[in-house]
Specification:
Chain lengths: 910, 235
């Protein structure tokens, strides 16, 4: 009878199958979990294992090869043979017998020494005791006599024992030395073998590093490949959290990229390969990966190791995916304020050059770039300068007149261009009139006068205009981003009027105090000739009364004001009444980290939705995202593809990241000074004429026939000249060093702070401090001035054959002259003069100054060339002390034998 | 027995000698000559007299003329005729040569020298000279030669034609031809040149003049024969 609820068969039922299946499943799932956890999600293990094996195998192969090389090396083979012979001899030969004998002897002498030493030690202990007794007796006032005698006895005993100890010690040392002597042969051979086996040990070390040895020492051990593990770098305080607190960054990239800083794995595929520019980027003085990790430059998701996509940050919502290609250069600007001249940062440096010099900063604010001056000319008195009809056409399409101008295209229609011109025309009237009153039309101006035109042309090509301006289609010096930084004047007559041109040439700052255009210190005649010449370039327009009437129409002026304000003309130009306008563009300080969601693509569907594509296309075609509702104002710059890329990479680097100082490049005062100076050098286009820090010197192309007539290169100028001289010269270069040159160092009208910027810049580039150079003739070693004077004289080096000395000029044509050495005392650094005399070609390849050394005369300062150079330098530094002295010094070589008195005289005056 | 042995020795000796002689014969026969003259077509301008502007005592002893185009009886001097690429052939003899600056003038005006050979530069003028080579392949050199240094020894290691100038005396100009193989010749006043022992084959012969440029001629050389090559430059 069955009881309800109880099934007696239940107990007998077997669940074996269920349990069996269940446990099978459990096992399978566990195995799968282990597999998944260790294999499928641990790709880095596979990579690392592969690398470790390759590393080991290569080292093994290299070791074998090295061994082969060693075996083939007769020197090595000889050493091995010698060693074997030596070992043989030490073990069983004559030396072996001697060694065994010595060892036995050594044991004996050690015992002898020990005994002797022990005896002395015992006596010493007894002495200690005796002294104690003696002191004790003295303190208690007892009779210390017996103790004193005891001490004396013991002293005598010790003295008696000492010679025996000394003899035993010597014997012991002798035996030791002899053993060393017997073994010295093998030691010497071993040392030589050790030296030859340097590479072999290197490979052995590499093999050891790729393996681990398991098992306790003294038992059979196993050597296994290293087990892969996570290679992690922690960048202390590198990031900030949402509360702007420092947080560490974890970077595990080298778990896969394990060979990144190992030489010789360039042939391996990613991720195992060596960094393609390892020595530039990963050296200890640059960004050692053990400190910087990889993401500091490359970005990506440093912590992630489970898949390439995750590790590289190519996943949703990760804001800093891996930089691809040259985009990685964007990271340079996070830590380096001056990327120009930085090796491996060529793209971003180009972007920075364009960004700084083409006018981007006129509309866009970026931290660190805020102080860059306006790039366009002042329009305060523009009415006095321009042809009105030209102005309208220019605003409408600047590149039609000058294809390489920096002025962008604003997509203005004719009426808009006219309105803008009307406003600018009208606001400049007051200041223009005042200026015109002061600057009347030049008398004697005869348009097209052949003689004047020719003279003007000659001037334009010789005094230095060519350093910046071109006068024909393809003439230019400095071009950045495909833009001429200084206008090409081939059609200048169509633009500017002769009256303005004349006064502008004479005194550019009189028209615009802030202009970059320097004064070439032209005489009125020269300015007139140049004006006449310039007015033959391009077609002089007929006065167009209709245009003037439209420009003066108040409706147009009012419309123009709105346009000028809206399009931010004041960002680049100085416009009366708009001095305090703010920049009209968006601030770009953190543009590089702008999320995609904040970028407006308008109605365009052809452009890929990435930051990269948005930015590229924005620069390429600035109005591409405009819609009927959303207006866009950015003008078109017409950059080449590479230039857009370069600017885009720079913009990518403008990110919101406050990297701790410890990761940043050295931005001490010197780096700041170099940056400030470099910007000024570019602003004033110094590099149009001078080569500085390896860049520029573009004007030299016009002097190929006679390079010495070109402006001098200024590489290493900081080391060459005295700071106080340079400071003065920059402010007032009217007394040139090479007065015979036709090309003139213009007067830029630099004030003290400006000149200081340049002085610091040159000092920074040459890595020198700015010392006050004081030359004290009293400190010059005896005989040096006489020796220097002799070397300088026509009997030896004939320095005066080319070098000017004050009023005394060399014979022959001026192009063969060399700088005035009377200026050396004020101008040059004596240390530099020594380097220069030693090897001029090294400091300035191609210079006309020949090397006199090696090859100095034997009969001066005993032929010691170093002393001769010092003496010559010391003498040169005394030239130009006083005219009287110089004259006497001059008279000396001619007088020949009467050298002595004049030199003494000079010493006294010094 | 003895006699037979000595006969054998004599025979072997004679055979060796004959073989050796034959070898010498073939070696001498291997190679031909390229010779001819360089002519100048048209009226040559009269050489300009050089203006001596400094160190007149030393430099203006005799009148000097511009040597950049020297033509006599329609023949062109100072032309370098050379083969740039030759395989095999005789060894380049590193013969020492001299460049004299006597009277502030380079003598010879075009100096030919084997690469690696010593060039002795003389300064008998009692004034400062400097030797400035405008070389692109060899390391440019600008050495002073003050009056106390009457001799200066230099070497040029790589084949090149380079201009040499004195910066102290602007009018001084000359050329140095550094030869990479022994097949070169500089024409004298008669315009004649001759390249000897050229291994048989076809060659591109270069004919270089400082002002008139370089001409290239293909010449075929046969063993033991002389290939005629007459070149003409137009003014």
């Amino acid at each position: 009878m069955a009881v309800r609820g109880v099934d007696p068969n239940e107990e007998r039922k077997s669940y074996g199958t269920v349990f069996f299946v269940g446990s099978i499943l459990l096992v399978v799932v566990s195995l799968w979990a282990i597999f998944d956890d260790n294999i499928t999600r641990r790709v880095w293990k596979i990579h690392q294992t592969e690398f470790i094996r390759t590393d080991y195998e290569r080292a093994e192969a290299a070791l074998a090869k090295e061994q082969e090389r060693l075996n083939a090396d007769p020197k090595y083979a000889e050493l091995v043979k010698q060693r074997a012979a030596e070992v043989e001899s030490l073990e069983s030969g004559e030396k072996g017998a001697r060694l065994a004998e010595l060892r036995e002897l050594q044991q004996r002498v050690e015992v002898e020494y020990f005994d002797a030493d022990q005896e002395v030690k015992f006596v010493k202990s007894e002495l200690d005791e005796a002294w104690y007794e003696f002191d004790h007796a003295v303190q208690l006032g007892e009779d210390a006599g017996p103790y004193r005698r005891h001490i004396q006895e013991l002293d005598a005993q010790q003295r008696a024992l000492e010679p025996a100890l000394e003899a035993a010690r010597k014997k012991r040392a002798d035996v030791k030395a002899e053993i060393r002597e017997v073994q010295s042969g093998i030691k010497k051979i071993d040392d030589q073998i050790y030296e030859l086996e340097g590479d072999k040990r290197k490979w052995q070390r590499q093999m050891d590093n790729a393996t681990v040895t398991v098992g306790p020492e003294g038992f059979p051990q196993f050597t296994l490949y290293k087990v892969p593990n996570i290679h992690q770098v922690v960048l202390k305080d590198f990031d900030r959290n949402n509360f702007d607190q420092h947080v560490d960054r974890v970077d595990r990239c080298q778990s896969c990229h394990i060979g990144i800083n190992r030489a010789g794995f360039d042939d391996l595929p990613q991720p195992l390969t060596t960094h393609p520019k390892r020595l530039v980027f990963l050296s200890d003085t640059a960004h050692p990966p053990r400190v910087f990790g990889c993401t500091a430059c490359h970005d990506g998701q440093g912590e992630a190791v489970n898949s390439t996509a995750q590790a590289h940050g190519n996943v949703k919502f990760w804001e800093h995916p891996l930089h691809e290609g040259h985009d990685v250069e964007a990271s340079c600007v996070t830590c380096h304020i001056n990327v120009q001249g930085l090796e491996g940062a060529e793209v971003v440096a180009r972007g920075q050059q364009i960004f700084e010099q083409v006018g981007c900063t006129g509309c866009h604010l970026v931290e660190g770039y805020a102080d860059i001056p306006k790039v366009g000319p002042s329009l305060r008195k523009v009415q006095a300068k321009l042809d009105p009809a030209w102005m309208v056409k220019w605003i409408e399409n600047p590149r039609e007149f000058r294809p390489f101008t920096r002025m962008p295209h604003f997509y203005f229609k004719e009426d808009e261009a006219l309105a803008a011109a009307a406003y600018l025309w009208s606001v400049s009237e007051k200041e223009a009139d005042a200026w015109l009153k002061e600057n009347p039309a030049p008398g004697g101006y005869r348009p097209g006068d052949a003689a004047l035109v020719e003279k003007g042309r000659e001037l334009a090509r010789s005094v230095g205009c060519l350093g910046c301006h071109g006068f024909a289609e393809d003439e230019f010096t400095t071009r950045v981003g495909g833009k001429d930084l200084v206008p090409n004047l081939k059609d200048i007559a169509a633009k500017a009027n002769p009256r303005w041109t004349y006064h502008w040439l004479l005194d550019p700052k009189g028209y615009n105090p802030a202009t970059r255009m320097p004064s070439l210190r032209l005489s009125e005649d020269e300015a007139l000739a140049l004006t006449t010449y310039l007015m033959t370039l391009g077609e002089k327009p007929e006065p167009d009364a209709a245009v003037v009437a439209r420009l003066e129409d108040p409706a147009n002026v009012a419309k123009g004001e709105k346009l000028v304000r809206k399009y931010g003309c004041a960002g680049c130009h100085d416009i009366p009444g708009m001095e305090n306008e703010s920049r009209i563009g968006v601030e770009l300080t953190t543009f590089g980290s702008k999320p995609l969601e904040e970028l407006f693509f308008g109605n365009d569907t052809s452009i890929k939705h990435t930051w990269k594509d948005w930015t590229y296309n924005k620069i390429l075609s600035p109005r591409v995202y405009a819609t009927e509702r959303v207006e866009q104002l950015m003008p078109h710059f017409d950059f080449a593809k590479e230039d857009i890329e370069a600017v885009r990479v720079l913009l990518r680097g403008f990110i919101e990241r406050k990297v701790p100082e410890s990761f940043k490049a050295d931005h001490a005062e010197r780096a700041q000074q170099i940056l400030a100076g470099r910007r000024k050098v570019q602003e004033y286009n110094c590099i149009g004429c001078h080569e500085i820090d390896g860049m520029g010197g573009y004007v030299r192309k016009y002097y190929e026939q006679n390079p010495t007539l070109a402006p001098p290169p200024l590489n290493g100028e900081g080391e060459k000249v005295q700071a106080n001289w340079l400071f003065g010269f920059l402010q007032n270069p009217e007394n040139p060093i090479r007065p015979w040159l036709k090309v003139r160092m213009p007067t830029f009208g630099f004030d003290g702070p400006h000149a200081d910027t340049f002085v610091n810049y040159f000092a920074g580039l040459s890595e020198v401090d700015i010392p006050y150079v004081h030359v004290d003739e009293g400190q010059v070693p005896a005989g040096y001035l006489e020796a220097g004077q002799m070397l300088f004289s026509d009997d030896y080096f004939e320095c005066g054959s080319c070098h000017v000395r004050g009023d005394k000029t060399p014979d022959g044509p001026v192009e063969d002259w060399a700088p005035d050495l009377n200026l050396a005392r004020q101008r040059l650094n004596p240390d530099w003069i020594e380097k220069w005399i030693l090897d001029p070609q090294k400091l300035q390849p191609g210079t006309k100054m020949p090397s006199f050394y090696p090859g100095g005369p034997e009969d001066i300062l005993s032929g010691d060339e170093k002393k001769q150079i010092e003496a010559l330098t010391d003498y040169i530094m005394t030239l130009g002390l006083q005219p009287a002295t110089a004259a006497k010094a001059e008279a000396v070589p001619a007088a020949g034998s009467s050298k002595q008195p004049a030199v003494e005289e000079q010493n006294r005056q010094g | 027995m003895d006699r037979r042995f000595s006969l054998l020795v004599a025979l072997v000796f004679a055979m060796t000698a004959a073989l050796a002689f034959g070898a010498v014969q073939t070696a001498m026969a291997a190679g031909g000559t390229i010779s001819g003259a360089v002519a100048f077509k048209g009226d040559a301008p009269k050489p300009k007299k050089l203006k001596i502007t400094k160190d007149k005592k030393a430099c203006d002893k005799r009148p000097k003329f511009d040597s950049s185009l020297v033509v006599k009886d329609g023949k062109l001097a100072n032309v370098v005729v050379y083969i740039a690429e030759v395989k095999g052939g005789k060894a380049l003899e590193k013969k020492a040569v001299t460049l004299d600056q006597n009277g502030c003038e380079y003598q010879p005006h075009v100096l030919a020298v084997a690469a690696g050979a010593d060039v002795t530069i003389l300064n008998p003028d009692k004034v400062l000279h400097n030797i400035h080579t405008y070389s692109k392949i060899n390391k440019p050199m600008n050495r002073a030669q003050p009056k106390f240094k009457k001799k200066l020894k230099v070497k040029f290691d790589k084949p090149e034609i380079m201009e040499v100038k004195c910066d102290v005396h602007g009018w001084m100009g000359g050329w140095i031809f550094v030869a990479g193989n022994p097949y070169y010749s500089v024409t004298g006043e008669d315009g004649a040149f001759s390249l000897t022992d050229v291994p048989a084959g076809k060659y591109q012969v270069q004919i270089w003049h400082e002002k008139l440029g370089t001409q290239t001629r293909e010449v075929e050389v046969k063993d033991g024969e002389t290939a005629k090559l007459d070149v003409e430059f137009a003014g």
